[in-house]
Design goal:
This protein has 4 helices and 4 strands, in the order E-H-H-E-E-H-H-E. It is mainly alpha-helical. The strands form 2 sheets. A two-stranded antiparallel ribbon has the order 1-4. The model has no long low-confidence stretch (mean pLDDT 86).
Amino acid sequence: MSNSPDHPAAAPPASPEMPALAPEPERTQPPEIKTWRSIAKAVSWRAVGSLDTLLLSYLMITYIGPFFGLEQSQGEAVKAASYIAITEIVTKILFYYFHERFWAWVQWGTSVVDGKRQESLRRTTTKTFTFRTIATLDTILLAWFFTGSVQTALSIGGLEIFTKLALYFLHERVWAKVPFGVVH
């Protein structure tokens, strides 16, 4: 074939290079989650979680404990609730940190939209339930240790499931919008 007006030459194949002024292509790789983000999340969650545990433990020891034979004065109830809450600061920060590092490694339920990391509701929900299972078992064991009453420990852990699920889910959704420690 010739280069005549009736038979134009075939166009050269498109160049794989992007034009100089073209928008940058959207990232497909998830951003890196820094260790400091996991530490900050662990500490902020522990502040919320320990206050909740302190209040729930006190209320359960004071008002439910007597139904199970746990008779404690108000001062003893405050002391036991404080020991539970203070001890779990250490145990739960460690559990939370390792849980966060595991989920930073698992990319399921994350995407990059407009160059920013997004976390799906399914991922947040799954993280909520996996952490709550670990944390509730920890609270039950600590409450049992400090009160000596399995029934009171189970009542503390049982009520905590509901309050902490809601609080943790909200905490995760807030942190999903915080860019601290996310490297795009």
